[in-house]
Amino acid sequence: MADIPPDIPPEKSLIEYPSAFPIKVMGAAVAGFEAAMVEVARRYDPGFDPASVERRPSSGGNYLGLTLTVTATSRAQLDELYRALSSHPMVKVVL
């Protein structure tokens, strides 16, 4: 994993670790989307609570926005989580 930058020293990071960190994910409103996102979140935060997922369907009902609040433990963990979510075939956007 040579492409992962080293962690930013705590005194220069804008995020205090560990902390609750919300990640917004949007995809098509299809069966299995939420479960797939929970599975990805749990890979990087084993204590992730699926009951904490916030859901926002689009006005037309075609898309579903999810807010996954993970426990961030490092910059590397967040970078890997963003990569996993962004490359997932069901995901349209990750913020």
Summarize the structure.
With 95 residues, this protein is an alpha+beta fold. It has helices spanning 33-44, 75-87, and strands at residues 19-28, 54-57, 63-72, 91-94.
Would you give an account of this structure?
This protein has 95 residues and is α+β, with helices and mostly antiparallel strands. The chain has a domain of 64 residues. Helices cover 26% and strands 29% of the residues. The chain is built from two helices and four strands. The protein has a four-stranded antiparallel β-sheet with strand order 2-3-1-4, covered by helices on one side. A hairpin with a 5-residue loop joins β2 and β3. α1 packs antiparallel against α2. The chain is elongated and about 40 Å long. It starts with 18 loop residues before the first strand and ends with a strand. The mean pLDDT is 91.
Portion in strands: 25-35%
Principal-axes shape call: elongated
**Number of helical segments?**
2
Round the mean pLDDT to the nearest integer and report it: 91
Estimate percent helicity: 25-40%
Rounded radius of gyration (Å): 14 Å
What structural category arises from helix and sheet content? Answer: alpha+beta
